[in-house]
Q: What sequence folds into this?
């Protein structure tokens, strides 16, 4: 029993109800969401919370991509933006989320528009500032 108590001390997420009451602003979640997602994948791949107006959290790649590709059933039309407690929401985004969103966006683009090319001699206009990327991309659809 002593080992179980020590294990619980070293792994505080076991003592929290991530499946039924997760908090995206919890210090443990912010510092290492990947460990929590890994735990949830094995115990509750679709978590729910009533915090901040309620939300669902999918943790497997298949579930995330299914939800992202089915706006008829999983719409983000009525989105609530949750202000962070210390107003640093940009620093709270787990690094893997933008990469996963980009992967889904590219897969959807290629599924719907498999043939395209850049306009010959076309100039790409790049965004400056914190969010970098093309602002104008001269794409031609045959």
A:
């Amino acid at each position: 029993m002593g080992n179980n108590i020590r294990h619980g001390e070293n792994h505080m997420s076991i003592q929290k109800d991530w499946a039924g009451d997760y908090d995206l602003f919890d210090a443990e979640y912010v510092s290492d969401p990947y460990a929590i997602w890994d735990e949830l994948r094995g115990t509750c791949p679709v978590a729910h919370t009533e915090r901040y107006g309620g939300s669902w959290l999918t943790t497997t790649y298949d579930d995330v991509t299914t939800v992202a590709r089915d706006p008829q059933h999983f719409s983000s039309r009525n989105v609530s933006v949750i202000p962070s407690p210390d107003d640093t929401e940009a620093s709270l985004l787990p690094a893997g989320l933008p990469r996963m969103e980009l992967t889904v966006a590219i897969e959807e683009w290629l599924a719907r528009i498999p043939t395209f090319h850049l306009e010959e001699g076309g100039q790409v206009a790049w965004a400056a500032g914190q969010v970098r990327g093309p602002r104008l991309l001269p794409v031609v659809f045959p």
Summary: Strands lie at 46-49, 55-58, 117-118, 125-127, 133-136, 139-140. The CA atoms of residues 35 and 112 lie 34 Å apart. The helical segments are 2-10, 18-21, 27-31, 33-43, 61-68, 89-92, 96-112.
